[in-house]
Design a protein that fits this description.
434 Repressor (Amino-terminal Domain)
Length: 93
């Protein structure tokens, strides 16, 4: 009986970790989608041309739109370019 409890707790913990990891991936994906939508709303069809015009590293910007890890500094630069606050940016995410 004790072994079953331990297995249940172990499985429960693994399931929670998997769920949390999935949730984090979903949030990162939503951030990437939001950054891309802001660019499109600014009438830029190309991430490369947007990055170039705004003085951003084009590879770094492309990585943000692709869902790679983004630093807070980079996100602040992007929100400043679009003249929105972080709280406005994260609405609906």
């Amino acid at each position: 009986m004790r072994l079953h409890k331990i297995q249940f707790i172990w499985n429960f913990g693994l399931n929670n970790m998997a769920r949390e990891a999935k949730n984090k991936k979903e949030v990162v994906s939503k951030i990437a989608q939001k950054v891309k939508q802001l660019r499109l709303d600014a009438n830029y069809t190309s991430a490369e041309s947007f990055a170039y015009d705004k003085g951003l590293n084009r590879v770094q910007y492309w990585r943000v739109e692709s869902g790679a890890n983004v630093t807070l500094n980079t996100l602040l630069i992007i929100t400043d370019i679009h003249q929105i606050s972080l709280s406005k940016f994260f609405e609906g995410i």
